[in-house]
Amino acid sequence: MPPSPALRRALIGYGLLAAGSLGLPLVTRDSYHVDVATTILMNLVLTMSLRLEISTGQLNMAHISFMGIGAYASTILMMRGGYSFWITLWVAGVMAAVWAVPIGGLALRVSGPYYFLITFAFSEVVRLIFNNFFAEWFGGPSGLVQIPKPDPLRLAGVQLTFVGKVELYYLMCALLLLAAAVLVRLDYSRFGLVGNAIRQGDVLAETLGVWVFRYKLTAFVLGSFMAGIAGAFFAHSHQVLHSSDFSLEPMVLLVVFTVIGGTGSVWGPVVGTVVLTIASEFMREFHYYEILVYGAVLILTMLLLPEGLISLPGKLGRLVRRGGGGEAEAMGAGVAP
Amino acid sequence: MPIELLVQALLNGFALALVYVLVALGLTLIFSILGIINFAHGEFYMLGGYATYFGVAVFGLHYVPTLLLAIGAVGLAGVVAERLIFRHLRGKTLNAFIVSLGLLWVLQSGAQLTFGVLDKPVPSAFSGIIRAGRVIISVERFVVVLAAVGLIAVLYGFLQWSRVGRAMRAVAQDPDGAALQGVNIEFTSMLGFAVGCALAGAAGGLLAPVFAVSPPMGALPVVKAFIIIIVGGMGSLPGAVLGGLLLGTVEGIGSLFFSSAAVNVLGFLMVIAVLLVRPRGLFGAA
């Protein structure tokens, strides 16, 4: 049986992501380029998992806090407990997921703007705790420094080290492709379909027998697990942690990447993250006007393309064909959190 | 503990909280009418502060007419923002979030480029203190409290009895129903947004002499306003007032026992505690 068009699109998309990310070091090994690319890949894990949560109709403003929980968990386990990175990496994800159960369970009692605001309140509490309390563990306002890089790994008799920038890039690449495989698979499964149904009308979905709460919580916990993994990578590649790494500001950037890219498709966050990160590197040319221009770009993009950058090809196509285009409908509509 | 200390702490907490209630009322009014959360709300507070600074410190006007002018000017800025941007985003919460974020960056960095990064002090129009036993409050803060209470009363009267105010409440309840009754949705939304912004501008003008004005000055009041409206219930005006009084009490009394960092956590913990009992806030509609 030939693969369905949806599956074919998923495979092509995943192939492009894999080829692009794995192939980049063949094009450039410039340390600045690799740095930016590593950050993009790490942010992709965060935005793609955030989109999983948004696709059930909920904008979780505490997503970055779970990255923080993962980062601090992995760091403390390695520096105090002496465990290997290959253990702490997964513990970081599990720790984030474990905290996600009660926090998500409480927050998901409400929806829409209430959810948005209560998760924001949670993220501030988590950040203030990192910054002001348990200073002997979290380092207080000065943060944690001299965090070791990931341990070497023996794989099939070959010793892999993760010290150089390119080596760390490939580690992040592997983590991203793993996470993306799960997320893309989910999106084109029953899980993705039901998520779509919940986003379009959760009361209706509930009457059709969907256990909406459990569904949203699953997305929340899985998204948090991935954020925790990204956090562990962040901690050991940057080697410094500070509570402000997990504040409102970087969180807002994640939301911007995701929504500007488009939340209707699993590839929206990929487009948004890559385009906006590269664009903002170029916007440095504007010096003092950088933030001003960035803000204006956001406003214009959202007014002209309410469904995000991912809807641009479909829109152009419809403009050319005039009245054709059932294709663009598959991208899905804009979401209210 | 001496009772005077408690009263003093409560008074200090209330004075600021009442001004933050003004910011919160604007935010919640805009939310209930347009269905969006305006993250750039603190920037309208900042504009109010700068308008006051220019009136008093640069042009040498008296504080009271300056404040009224500032409120009008920020309301006008709100009209522009609504017509150009926000009317396209009615009810689209997620898109409105990104756009208001963009507006926040544009206004804040625009203010930095035009007015400079340094704090600008605004001379105080009122001096002296009021003494009641061992409780002390400066005349300046007392005027701020009076003005805030006055503005809240005016807003209440406007929404309760004026024709446009009632139209606003109708749109907040049900836009389609309101339109069927002949309410002009476009005009009402525009006016609602403008009134919301003007309230933020009033708060900025009131606190300009208390703190100095600076481009990022809107960040703190807007966070406080968010706490207030979550506790009170989004879209509820009495809720915003009650939420503000609660926040003032918690922060005022909390500051007697805890460090300022812990008091900040206290505000957010109050949010979580209230939402555990009443997920939609104290006055939120089910």
What does this molecule look like?
The complex is a heterodimer of chains A (337) and B (286). Chain A is mainly alpha-helical. Chain A has one domain. Chain A is built from 14 helices and two strands; from the N terminus they run H-H-H-H-H-H-E-E-H-H-H-H-H-H-H-H. Chain A has helices at residues 5-27, 31-54, 63-81, 85-107, 112-132, 135-138, 165-187, 190-200, 202-207, 212-238, 248-261, 268-283, 290-304, 312-321, and strands spanning 153-155, 158-160. The longest helix of chain A is centred in the last third of the chain and has 27 residues, at 212-238. Chain B is mainly alpha-helical and 286 residues long. Chain B has one domain (7-215). Chain B is 74% helix and 3% strand. Chain B contains eleven helices and two strands, in the order H-H-H-H-E-E-H-H-H-H-H-H-H. Chain B has a two-stranded antiparallel ribbon with strand order 1-2. The model of chain B has no long low-confidence stretch (mean pLDDT 89). The chains are: A mainly alpha (337), B mainly alpha (286). The A-B interface holds A 54, 59, 106, 109-110, 112-114, 116-118, 120-122, 124-125, 128-129, 131-132, 252, 255-256, 259-260, 263, 288-289, 291-292, 294-299, 302-303, 306, 334-337 and B 31, 37, 85, 88-89, 91-95, 97-99, 101-106, 108-110, 113, 223, 226-227, 229-230, 234, 259, 261-262, 264-265, 268-269, 271-272, 275-276, 279-281, 284.
